[in-house]
Design a protein that fits this description.
By secondary structure, chain A is of the alpha/beta class. Chain A has 3 domains: about 15-55, Orthogonal Bundle (434 Repressor (Amino-terminal Domain)), CATH 1.10.260; about 70-175 and about 310-335, Response regulator (Rossmann fold), CATH 3.40.50.2300; about 175-310 and about 340-365, Rossmann fold (3-Layer(aba) Sandwich), CATH 3.40.50.2300. Chain A has helices at about 15-20, 25-30, 40-50, 60-65, 90-105, 125-135, 145-155, 175-190, 205-220, 240-250, 265-275, 310-325, 355-365, and strands at about 70-75, 110-115, 135-140, 160, 170-175, 195-200, 225, 260, 285-290, 305, 335, 340. Strand 2 (about 110-115) of chain A pairs antiparallel with strand 2 of chain B. Chain A binds a DNA duplex (30 and 30 nucleotides) through helix 2 and helix 4.
DNA sequence: GCTGGCTCTGTAAGCGCTTACCGGTAAGCG
DNA sequence: CGCTTACCGGTAAGCGCTTACAGAGCCAGC
């Protein structure tokens, strides 16, 4: 305590070395557990490190060994008109990020995150700046055009989420098609609903297109009537979902018996709009989501949805990026399985068994 | 397009310089907008940069000018037994982080985030590693002991959230006391509830102690009966809240007319437990939260709570850290105002005016 | 026509770390 | 007892950038 506090004039490995009476090389070796320093040497270094509260500078380290141990993560922040002024839009993004973090920590990496506003101007510049600070980038859905991604991947390893691989970037996604098919089968075969609607996500999302196509194909195959088209265009936000219902109703259209939503947030908005008109879920209209975000189970009624292993998705994305960083190469497109989560918004009773012929059939279909 | 792709053998400023036919100093100056390069020089550099897809290395830059433009953010991830196996626990943390990010972006900083599991062993080491990669750290509530924080602040500028300043670290927090007082007054004076319970947060949280004290003081002042004690000990998680209610009920205790919860997550758990027992909110028991997390308005009934300007809290924390980084010094303890948000869980009717004598009185009390 | 003063550009010295390489010391062997 | 072998530890050369300093043109003025 008599120790006069070292002035905040950056402490370096030289300070530690001189205090311990050894060379900087020894300090470095002790700190990194390399070589085989004598016990005494090690102890003196550790002692000095403790006394000085020394932490090696990450930038210098990175510069020296060419590895920053940082992965950049870019995602889109709210942006479009917000539902009741709030930003629930980042719910699922955060779950994925958590997964990335879990994977990263296993390798001593940290996450450098940067969210992009919907109408930020200098997006490319910001992402480039981030790229300079990281060893690789993970891009959430819809961050950049395919060209933009390809260009970016020229500078730094890139993994996209729920997108498509480019010649230089890798991609990880969930099995959307299977999920939608399971949902449609549950609604049509298990519940016997004959008319289905589908509120889409943003038109520019690959995931969205895949889901819509799967919906149409499976519904037709199951012999149900479907409603789609411009009136059913949502945008992955709760506000988008609410809008679709409001417009449909205002136009005097009759709602189908069941409405599948492109994601849980959309379902949230749809249910909200339905509740405002006094339409009951699932008695009048059954609703399903997609994602299984944390709040899905807390809705009234609890939302039947497709669970994407989002945390795993993030962890996988990191692993792929990591192996690309350290070894190069890597599988261009990785698909993760999804799972039907039956709750009550589809019309199933609380606590009833979710095991259904349709779900199983869909699953078999996937396997076969 | 004939251009053979530069091999991924890190592109440097030298490559750009030789391609543009200028020196590396000129490249650097152009990239940073320093000096006054001739238009032709600038153009040639930019051209080369574009052609090569060059991005300057952040580590080298940081090493050279002593600024990484990175803030480390540390927070605690779920950890305790999770409510229905999910991690809603990071809801409010993410809002704060978003605020930090907004502040950071204004200064060209990015966020390096690292969450700490509840029983991770090497927490101090991980935080130290993070410190090495950042210019400063923002620590969420309950990350480290006061001693640990002080030690950390020896190495790097530190700002804590909802904690207390130490001789070397700064702190930013919300006005908990005012919030609790406003809530108590609303319940006792506006609604006339005579018996109040308070489900606490984690015992080791400064915020929690402040809130509990304010609750007791204000309730007594308002002439209400209060219930506290070990049976009311929560832990800021939904599971904690649910447990308190379950234990109380199992012990045959009668619940007070109104229950204030240490935060929204706790309230979520309490309401869930109440619903399972068939106890109605707010008819049988009124509930309030604290935080106003995004889902609070989507609960049934919508949750009356205290809105903490969490995003602003984050932004403020960054600004304070930034000025500390660039200028040193800084206000040790910053307090942000909070606001009563009246919804329905307290017993107010949907859409009724929140303006109340109690809230205003409490506000006046604060001003005076 | 030559010099002083400007402007722009290049050279080189670090920033704090890792690590290849080499020298010194001690132990092992003939 | 002298030389080899092994083992530690120290010296110094970068990693890719910024920037102080100095040099090279160029114009204006005497």
């Amino acid at each position: 305590m008599a120790e006069p506090k070292k002035a905040r004039a950056t402490l370096t490995i030289y300070d530690v070395a001189s205090r311990a009476g050894v060379s900087i090389a020894s300090v470095s070796r002790v700190l990194n557990g390399l070589g085989s320093p004598r016990a005494e040497t090690r102890e003196r270094v550790m002692q000095a490190v403790r006394e000085l509260s020394f932490v090696p500078d990450g930038a210098a380290r990175a510069l020296s060994n060419g590895l920053k141990e940082v992965v950049g993560v870019v995602f889109r922040r709210g942006g479009e008109e917000l539902f009741e002024g709030e930003d629930e839009s980042f719910l699922y993004i955060d779950v994925i990020n958590r997964g990335i973090e879990v994977g990263a920590q296993r390798r001593g990496f940290d996450l450098l995150i940067s969210s992009v506003g919907f109408n930020d101007d200098n997006v490319a510049a910001r992402i480039a700046a981030l790229a300079g600070k990281a060893d690789g980038l993970i891009l959430h859905d819809r961050m950049l055009s395919a060209v933009g991604i390809a260009r970016l991947a020229d500078m730094v390893p890139v993994v996209t989420l729920a997108g498509s691989p480019t010649p230089t970037s890798l991609n990880v996604r969930c099995d959307n098609e299977f999920g939608i098919r399971a949902l449609v089968r549950h609604m049509v075969i298990d519940h016997g609903y004959r008319s289905l609607g589908y509120v889409t996500g943003r038109a520019d999302s690959p995931d969205n297109r895949t889901r819509l196509r799967a919906f149409e194909a499976e519904a037709v195959a199951a012999g149900a009537e479907i409603e789609t088209g411009p009136a059913w265009q949502g945008n992955y936000s709760a506000a988008g979902g609410a809008n679709v219902v409001a417009s449909l109703l205002n136009a005097g259209r009759k709602l189908p018996r069941a409405i599948l939503c492109a994601n849980d947030q959309t379902a949230l908005g749809v249910m909200h709009a339905l509740a405002q008109r006094g339409i009951r879920v699932p008695q009048d209209v059954a609703i399903t989501g997609f994602d299984d975000v944390p709040v899905a189970r807390h809705l009234h009624p609890p939302l039947t949805t497709i669970r994407q292993p989002m945390q795993e998705l993030g962890a996988k994305a990191f692993e792929i990026l990591y192996s690309r960083i350290s070894a190069g190469g890597g599988k261009p497109d990785t698909v993760l399985p999804v799972e039907l989560v039956v709750r009550e918004s589809c019309g199933c009773a609380s606590g009833s068994s979710p095991a259904s012929s349709a779900a199983l059939a869909a699953r078999d279909g996937q396997k076969g």
